[in-house]
Structure formats: structure tokens, C-alpha cells
Amino acid sequence: xxxxxxxxxxxxxxxxxxxxxxxxxxxxxxxxxxxxxxxxxxxxxxxxxxxxxxxxxxxxxxxxxxxxxxxxxxxxxxxxxxxxxxxxxxxxxxxxxxxxxxxxxxxxxxxxxxxxxxxxxxxxxxxxxxxxxxxxxxxxxxxxxxxxxxxxxxxxxxxxxxxxxxxxxxxxxxxxxxxxxxxxxxxxxxxxxxxxxxxxxxxxxxxxxxxxxxxxxxxxxxxxxxxxxxxxxxx
Length: 235
What we know:
The chain has 235 residues and is an alpha+beta fold. 37% of the residues lie in helices and 31% in strands.
């Protein structure tokens, strides 16, 4: 069978085939889903994207070796914090990592995770970089985006080379929030903010709201909340 016929047949079958869906209890792996129209549904899931900022300029100015070291360190720290916070890593994409949180405390867990990633960048990664390279003037920075919504997981790709696509507002908004270029390092939607426990919403001394409300101009001026706070990793 030729390539064109493969493409035509797959497109026709995918658009024609009825979906088989089931409620999700855990975050699925690709092998839990069929390549046909098979989906796991979550009434609500929280999606987190952690994105390393300025990576193109980093490669141009620091060279590939140092840039690769920063990539590796950032993704390692983010991944370890995500897992420790109860999230499931669903993909690495260049200089960013995506994770899904489910369960009763999912949104607060994701928000605290974002604050911990901010702490790790400022208190682990940047000091280690400066300690290794005397005279270093480069500062690693990141943006974390978080949203919560109904989400569906489906398997996509070709046989032997496939992954899960996450369909729902949370996946799209969480990714788009990482494009905001302001001093705040962690961003959440209003729906996520309204679901935060008090310990994920208030901090500091004196105790105050850690999240500042903004109009998200890139998304029709809907409310979004950004934070400059961090949450220390203690063990």
C-alpha cells in the first residue's frame, strides 16, 4: 500500500469511527489506549507546563554544552519536583515539561509545585551554575503555567512511534500561560485560583495573597493570576 493511500485511509477512518470513552482513575500511559478512537475522560484534571525561558538566546550566547547542562538541570529538577508533588509527567518537549495532576487536591498540588520549581531555579540551579563557572553573568529563568478543566486523553501517532494527546482547555491554557513575559514566574487561570486551598493561596510574613490578578491580554483579557513567590524544597 502506498503512502498516499495510507494517509487517505487513516483520515477517512478517524473521522468516521465512533469514539470509545471511559472514565479515568489514573493518568494513562500510551499502552493503556488504542490507536483507534479510544479516549480516557477526566471530569477535571490540572495541567502544568514548566518552560525554560530564553532558550534560543541561551544557545546562541552560551554555546551548546553549557546550554545543554542548563536544559538537563532544569528538566531534572522540574521532573523530580513534579513527581514529588503528585503529578504525572506526560511529555518533555525540548526545554519544557508537561504534567497532569488528578485527585481532590490537584490544583493546589500543581500550584505549590510551580512555586517549588521557582525556588529550585533561584536557589539550586543558578547558584550551581555560578559556582561552576566563575564570572558567569547568565541567569536561568522559567515560567510555569497551570489550568484546570475537563480533559480527554487519546493515543496519537503511528504504530511503533506514538504518544498521548491531551485534549481540553487546561492543556492549551497552561501552555499559553508560559508565554507571558512579566516578573511573575508562576501563572494560573482564574478557575485554578478559585480552587486553591488557603495554604496554596496565602503565604509570607505578614500572611498575604501570593497571587496577583491580571488581565490576560493574549487571551481576550480574561483573568489570570501570577506569583513571584517560591516554596522551599526542604528535603
